[in-house]
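Objective 1.3, modelling of assemblies. Example input:
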Amino acid sequence: MTDETQVVQIFKTIDATVGLELLVIIVTAIILIVAVQRTLSWVGNRLQGKKRLNLLVMVPFIRLAIILITFVVIVPLLIEPSIQNMVALLGTVAVALGFALKDYVSSLIAGIVAIGERNYRNGDWIRVGDIYGEVCHVGMRTVEVVTPDDDRVLIPHALLWNQAIFNSNNGDARLQCAADFYLHPQHDGIRVKQLLEDVALTSPFLYIDKPIIVIVKEEPWGTHYRLKAYPVDAAQQFRFTSDLTVRGKTMLLKCDVRFAVVPAVSDSE
Amino acid sequence: MNRFHAISKSGKTTDTLGSEENGVWTFVSPPDYEIPGLPAHSAMANAWVTFKQIFRRVDESSQTLVKQESDLRSLSHVRLEHLVPFLDLRIVSEALNASVVDWLATDDSGRSVKWIIGQPYTDHAQTVRLWGERHQAITIASPSCEQILAGKVSWLDDWPKNGQLWVLPNLEHCFLRHPDGLKFVRLLFERIDSGRFGRGMIGCDSWAWSFLQRIWPVSQADVLTLQAFDGLRLVQLLSGMTASRSDKRVRFRSAANGEDILTVPSDADQVHSEITRLAAHCRGNVGIALHYWRRCLRSEAETDTRKPNDQEETEQKNELSEESVWVASVLPEPVLPVGMEEDSTLLLHVLLIHGGLPGSVLSELLPLSYPLCMMLLQRLQRIGFVQYRNDRWSIHELAYSFVRNLLHGRAYLVDDF
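Predicted structure (tokens):
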């Protein structure tokens, strides 16, 4: 009986006016969030490079700000904002959520952490497990990724707690791409290295102010060349890698460089 | 060839060559190139137009203004030739000569080659060629695209020997952005650096230069470029051009508000904001500024054929000693339609890097098939982005500013000017 009285004391009496006020505040917040998300995403997708990323990055921050402001405005309408009341209410809510919606809340908190730590932002290219794609929306519970095959994948933020997240461009407009060439070991390495550098240097997709690197590794079956360079825009990475591969292959064949042939069946068999 | 007249700041007409005095034609080191700025209100207007373009690719407001100016008609070629004749590049080559006279007089084998970097449409090749003729230098023709791709470096073996002065007007046509297309320029740079080629002058387009500097950097001390045309220089140039061909007083008036943008001759030293805007829009590129200026000039349609009364007769007498030319308020510029951006951007970029290209080599330089390249070129030609001249596809003068902004916005390699 005493507990019931205490709970009643925490909450204010909600009459029709307060109810309407709450409704207006919540609806306004939702409309604002949707408007901001859609407008900034739409404008951002019509821009290029750094401008696009800078604009898209703002979306989750603005949404979080709107939610916090809404929360701060709503709470005094519902309860007497004393420390005692706040502790009692939040404690109760925390226990209830902890049991009933543990994973959901975990994702929500991870979402706030992800926004704060900027682990991934809109426009970043990330890999989580086997999923690789461009972040197109950082929601409160999930991050939305579009893969190169145009699949839309929703990844819960909670994966942040126990899984590595690879961010290929980390807020930058450019990311490094690599094209692999597996060659027969008998060839002029210096010439091939120079040739591959020229292949990258003459690619129409190349961002010329970033370095071009050729890494050479000798393997038991031949020589592995890895040509690394940056495209002008992260979205061009697949066309860029294809261009490097196709033109690299053509040039190597023109110079009579043979490609490594690995036996399909191992010697032990 | 037309004689060029320039007007000094005092408004006095002088017979050509006052270049050094009035500083219209000046060659400077590339870091000293001063891109003209916009007046604050024009900068805001430009930012607003750019912002609007994010939402709407074709600026409808510009169409409304053109409609308002529909009463005016474009000038005939004869009249245009009178008001804005084509540049006499001999004057530019004279200014170039003045800039290199010390270098030519000294015998410094360490600095045997001068590099003249030209912004697009300023015809640096002809300027260098004319300079070469003045000094009886041997003009070296650039190799064909087929020669470049085949790597036939015998072209370099025919270089003038015995210390004879030479000029290579088009370095931009001596390479291709292709793994096989860099052999020539690398050898060329190497032999020039070693001093084997003796004394000479090389002209190069600013876009090609930007790319080649990533391959073989050259000391800035040996590089010259035409100084940017700011509002004042542009006024001096346009006034000089008009004064050289017209006996009348010519008033260039804004079609939007009737203000005098330029009056020739005039004692005033003021530069109208429209000229400043034009200079800033063209980033000081005189070739493009003249193209815009020609395209913006209009005359009134002669529709009234009734007999004049006394007052009108007096006005007509005044008109005999003065003529008005209207200047359209909107710079004629094409806009790239949505949906043809990525491949078109690659195509436009490769054309700029090479100072124009024959259609046959495009598929060698781009990850696009030959039919696709030709289809894109035809479409771009229809909307005024590219033109086909002298067997080469190149960017249209009026599309250049848009294309440069587009490429710069997308972080493609652009020139320094």
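The beta strands of chain A are 125-128, 131-138, 142-146, 152-156, 165-167, 177-183, 213-219, 222-229.
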